[in-house]
């Protein structure tokens, strides 16, 4: 059986490798839809609050109203220097590669799986018309090929 849960967060980013409008700093209201495989053992499988109690606070702490940034992006060093000089504490969600929606999907899939959930698919909506569907097969294949080995997930186990 599949349980589906939806979450949203706001974040800024840029794709410094591209030579189009997405190279500029901009933001999105990301929508994620988690598809969890659960086993029925009685009148219900899993309380929805079990997902919300872990995933909601995690997204709020590490992603919401933050900036997704590649640590190799020259802007990263500038922001870190600004924070040090001025005492600002920007919420920077560090990636060790481009902050593409594909890399975000891989990173979130990893972190949510580390929470102990059996995530089978994750849909990440970046704009009103653009969604990446990322499933367990994609995640396993990417991990095996180390396609996203440069992403740096936080320890999401709570």
TrEMBL record:
InterPro entries: 6-PTP_synth/QueD, 6-PTP_synth/QueD_sf
Catalytic reactions on record: 7,8-dihydroneopterin 3'-triphosphate + H2O = 6-carboxy-5,6,7,8-tetrahydropterin + triphosphate + acetaldehyde + 2 H(+)
The protein, known as: 6-carboxy-5,6,7,8-tetrahydropterin synthase
Species annotation: Blastopirellula marina
Family membership noted in the UniProt record: Belongs to the PTPS family. QueD subfamily.
GO MF annotation list: 6-carboxytetrahydropterin synthase activity
Pfam families: PTPS
Top-level taxon in the UniProt lineage: Bacteria
SUPFAM superfamilies: Tetrahydrobiopterin biosynthesis enzymes-like
Pathway given in the UniProt record: Purine metabolism; 7-cyano-7-deazaguanine biosynthesis
Annotated EC: 4.1.2.50
């Amino acid at each position: 059986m599949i349980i589906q849960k939806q979450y949203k967060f706001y974040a800024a980013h840029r794709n410094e490798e591209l030579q189009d409008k997405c190279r500029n700093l901009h933001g999105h209201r990301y929508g994620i839809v988690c598809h969890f495989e659960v086993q029925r053992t009685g009148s219900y499988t899993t309380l929805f609050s079990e997902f919300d109690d872990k995933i909601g606070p995690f997204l709020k702490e590490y992603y919401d109203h933050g900036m997704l940034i590649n640590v190799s992006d020259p802007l990263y060093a500038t922001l870190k220097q600004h924070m040090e000089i001025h005492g600002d504490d920007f919420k920077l969600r560090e990636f060790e590669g481009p902050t593409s929606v594909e890399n975000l999907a891989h990173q979130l899939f990893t972190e949510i799986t580390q929470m102990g959930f059996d995530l089978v698919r994750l849909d990440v909506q970046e704009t009103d018309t653009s969604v990446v569907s990322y499933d367990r097969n994609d995640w396993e294949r990417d991990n095996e090929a180390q396609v996203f080995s440069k992403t740096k997930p936080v320890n999401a186990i709570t």
